[in-house]
Design a protein that fits this description.
Elements (H helix, E strand, L loop, with lengths): L1 E3 L9 E3 L19 H4 L3 E8 L11 E2 L1 E2 L10 E11 L10 E9 L12 E6 L9 E4 L3 E4 L2 E7 L7 E7 L2 E4 L3 E3 L3 E9 L7 E9 L1 H13 L16
Parallel strand pairs: 5-11
Antiparallel strand pairs: 1-2, 3-6, 4-8, 6-7, 7-8, 9-10, 10-13, 11-12, 12-15, 13-14, 15-16
């Protein structure tokens, strides 16, 4: 909290809450078991105090769907940003690791009697422009993401854990073709159910039924070409 007053009116004191100077004492803090902080091994990055005319998307964060449904934030809002390590991109990218930023924002306009709360969950993709849904690999390949979802799922038989779902992943070459064609790939980021801070990935590949049926129908309708006999010869049946 900062205090200021004009020189000609020292009694007109103004107090301002500066969230950018907040810091978390992790040594004196204890995270809840199976919270999003522990499940995804998050690290506190900073605090944001948003003005009434600004929204999290203005800070470059993509919206992340959550369950249950929430209502949009309005008026002044506050947020905590976290570092989210997505692993290593391998030899295709010069960076040593994929580090993204996860934002959890809320507005004090929600009342205790309301069923839904005014909150916002956002994500910045690693190596991408703020607010972009794709990032470049070696300037030739581009990885695109359709939508994002944060929810609790049964990773094992134990208590449900938070997972980050990246829907409809696509790889394009020089912006021409999307790979794989006629299919949908979803990626899931999850933490170790034991809570040791390690993360893992798994992917789900779903073949597009419509494109598969189209290919089968085309194959069924295909007829082998009929060869004509050489000139001067008669065709026998």
């Amino acid at each position: 909290v900062s205090m200021s007053s004009p020189a000609d009116a020292p009694n007109a004191v103004t107090f301002i809450f500066e969230a950018s100077r907040l810091a978390l004492d992790q040594g004196a803090s204890q995270a809840r078991p199976h919270s999003v902080f522990t499940d995804l091994a998050l690290q506190v990055d900073g605090f944001i105090a948003g003005a009434e005319d600004k929204r999290p998307i203005d800070f470059g964060f993509l919206p992340v769907g959550v369950e249950p449904k929430v209502k949009p934030i309005s008026g002044p809002w506050f947020a905590i940003t976290y570092k989210l390590t997505l692993g290593s991109p391998g030899g295709l990218v010069s960076q040593t690791g994929f580090t993204s930023r996860l934002l959890l924002a809320w507005a004090p306009t929600s009342l205790p009697s309301e069923v839904s709360t005014a909150v916002f969950t956002g994500l910045q993709l690693p190596g991408a422009a703020p607010g972009a849904k794709l990032f470049s690999i070696q300037g030739v390949l581009k990885l695109s993401i359709d939508s994002l979802l944060l929810r609790r799922e049964h990773v094992s038989a134990a208590t449900p854990s938070f997972t980050l779902r990246l829907n409809n992943i696509g790889l394009s070459f020089l912006g021409i073709a999307k790979l794989p064609p006629g299919a949908t790939i979803n990626f899931f980021l999850f933490g170790d159910p034991s809570g040791d801070g390690s993360l893992g990935w798994y992917a789900a590949y779903v073949q597009d039924t419509k494109s598969t049926l189209t290919a089968i129908e085309a194959l069924q309708e295909w007829q082998p070409p009929r060869l004509s006999p050489p000139a001067g010869e008669e065709q026998t049946s």
